[in-house]
Design goal:
Layout: H1 7-18, H2 24-38, H3 45-72, E1 75-76, E2 80-82, E3 85-87, E4 90-91, H4 93-116, H5 123-141, H6 146-164, H7 171-202, H8 207-216, H9 226-241, H10 259-264, H11 272-279, H12 281-284, H13 288-309, H14 315-335, H15 339-358, H16 364-371, H17 381-402, H18 409-430, H19 436-464, H20 476-498, H21 509-516, H22 521-528, H23 549-553
Antiparallel strand pairs: 1-4, 2-3
Helix pairs in contact: 2-3, 2-5, 3-4, 3-5, 4-5, 4-15, 5-6, 6-7, 7-9, 9-11, 9-13, 11-14, 11-15, 13-14, 13-20, 14-15, 15-19, 17-18, 17-19, 18-19, 18-20
């Protein structure tokens, strides 16, 4: 006799079904993509409207998913497939935050692109590829299985490749797409290898179960080294995805693509490397040496990108180098095991940089101000010393108010690095030629920055407690790297304060040329992949079609 079903019997199935709600977001965008591909290429007004509506629908789904998360807690939805060959959505705070971020930025970019590309003969396919890319990113951030994660990761890259080649006649665009394609395939191979090792080590393809087992330190004795090897491959995939030195060249050439693509990169694409490290934070903690490598590579990339950014004359080029630096800082945060702060950085930077790219056409004055950060006065060594002491004092006072005791040393070191940037502003205010109003204004900026840092850090830690692991106590290697990072960033901040216009000084003309070209690392990469080889008839790179008159005009 079969016992009758009761409400308690159905409750787990209903909860699992409710956790499948996030799948509606990428499905809506996928439908909009198919509609756009079938629409006319020139002025597909209805397709643009459907795309915008689908992005709004994705935002609504994310908000409803927040209610499901609040009611039933985190978990994985029903799986489509069996065992390791299965797709399933995972709903937790990490996936929810990124779903909201991706859908919101996607909606803004689609609205902007509808006007920006009006009159383009291929606007329909562009809208289709853009909505399809957003759908793939949403599948990535809510992946509950290794198979879904890998598939969405690869599909996102392939769709982005089509967007980068929207103007196939542009030599630099084709070269950037080619570099991105090569780097991405290496990253794909690293991620596939990591997925295989994780599946072998933990005997499952469910990401939630893998994280729980990693947090508990459970794996077969004969497979104890596999999580560390998997962490190394995850780190490699993340570094390649986030355009870290020396594979950053493709990102610095995004100005050859339509502006909406540059903005779309910050909707979970270029920062997907950070998401990967955050998602597998419990696994990454099993490999301290890998985290140390992330600190070194991320820290160097952050310094390198920020210095080169100051020498760029083009608006989008300057913003692209800024993204390289910010992605380096994000990787540095992950290497310090500050995963909640890294997630907060992804959100803040994505919103800021997407806005910066979309408004780049009218932001010449703003970017000029970024490139010339010393508009009022050049402080002397005494003013710089006072500025740094004052900034550290403000940092200490605000930190005591929020409580230093419960902060890990890594977070305190990161706060010191951030306060160095504020010290530069204070140095401007303390210069002899600076007006009194600037002094008070920069002091207010310093207090606001320190307060915001501790407040947002506490908020992120509070929200993500239980979702992301706590930062472990640092060992000798971690202390050495933290000290090196603080000293290095501090030295650069002091140099920038003493010589705010160094990039424009005649004595630095030669250095400026080298830095403006990124120390020629990108050129070496071009030569390595044959990017400078030309066809005898056209004079262009292989597989690059000659530019059309419309492309030249644009």
């Amino acid at each position: 006799m079969i016992p009758p079903f009761t409400l308690p019997d159905l409750a787990p199935h209903l909860i699992s079904l409710a956790r499948a709600l996030p799948l509606l977001a990428p499905l809506a965008l996928a439908f909009a993509s198919l509609y756009a591909f079938k629409a006319p290429g020139l002025r597909p007004r209805r397709a643009v409207q459907v795309a915008e509506a689908s992005a709004l629908g994705a935002m609504l789904v994310a908000l409803l998913s927040a209610l499901v998360l609040a009611a039933y807690g985190p978990g994985t939805g029903p799986a489509l497939g069996y065992g390791l060959v299965a797709f399933a959505p995972r709903l937790d705070l990490v996936s929810l935050i990124l779903m909201l971020l991706v859908s919101f930025i996607g909606w803004l970019v689609l609205r902007y692109a509808g006007t920006f590309l009006d009159g383009e003969p291929r606007q329909g396919p562009f809208t289709g590829f853009m909505t399809a890319t957003l759908a793939a990113v949403l599948m990535l951030v809510q992946a509950g299985t290794l198979l879904q994660l890998v598939a969405a990761w690869i599909v996102t890259s392939l769709l982005l490749h089509q967007l980068l080649l929207f103007y196939p006649g542009r030599i630099a665009a084709a070269r950037a797409a080619r570099k991105k394609f090569i780097v991405s395939r290496i990253g794909d191979a690293a991620l596939i290898g990591a997925a295989v090792l994780l599946a072998i080590a933990y005997g499952t393809g469910d990401i939630g179960q893998i994280l729980a087992a990693a947090q508990a330190g459970e794996s077969a004795a004969s497979q104890s080294a596999l999580p560390a090897f998997a962490a190394a491959l995850l780190a490699l995939a993340a570094l390649l995805k986030s355009a870290q030195f020396p594979t950053h060249g493709w990102l610095t050439e995004v100005m050859e693509t339509p502006t909406p693509v540059s903005a779309l990169l910050h909707a979970g694409i270029v920062n997907a490397g950070g998401f990967l490290l955050i998602r597998f934070a419990d696994v990454m903690l099993q490999a301290p040496v890998v985290l140390a490598v992330l600190v070194m590579v991320g820290g160097f990339t952050a310094l390198f990108g920020s210095v080169v950014m100051l020498t760029q004359s083009a608006v989008k080029s300057s913003l692209a180098w800024s993204t390289v630096a910010q992605m380096g800082f994000m990787i540095l945060q992950c290497g310090l095991a500050l995963f909640p702060i890294a997630l907060l950085h992804i959100v803040a930077h994505s919103l800021y940089k997407a806005h910066a790219f979309l408004s780049s056409g009218s932001a010449v004055e703003t970017v000029a101000a970024i490139r010339r950060p010393g508009p009022v006065a050049i402080p002397d060594a005494r003013a710089v010393g006072r500025a740094f002491l004052l900034a550290l004092a403000i940092y200490a006072v605000i930190g005591l108010l929020f409580g230093f005791a419960d902060k890990p040393p890594q977070a305190l070191a990161l706060g010191a690095i951030l306060i160095f940037g504020v010290a530069y502003l204070i140095a401007q205010g303390l210069a002899d030629a600076a007006p009194r109003a600037l002094t008070w204004r920069t002091a207010l900026y310093a207090v606001s920055a320190a307060t915001a840092y501790f407040a947002l850090q506490r908020l992120a830690d509070w929200l993500l407690t239980g979702t992301l692991p706590a930062t472990p106590a640092p060992g000798p290697l971690e202390w050495t790297l933290m000290l090196l990072a603080v000293v290095t960033f501090g030295a650069v901040a002091v140099a920038q304060s003493l010589f705010p216009l160094w990039a424009y000084h005649p004595a630095a003309a030669g250095l400026r040329v080298h830095l403006a070209n990124g120390l020629y690392v990108n050129a070496l990469f071009d030569r390595l992949i044959g990017g400078w080889s030309t066809d005898k008839k056209t004079g262009l790179c292989p597989s690059i079609t000659p530019p059309t008159p419309a492309a030249i005009k644009e």
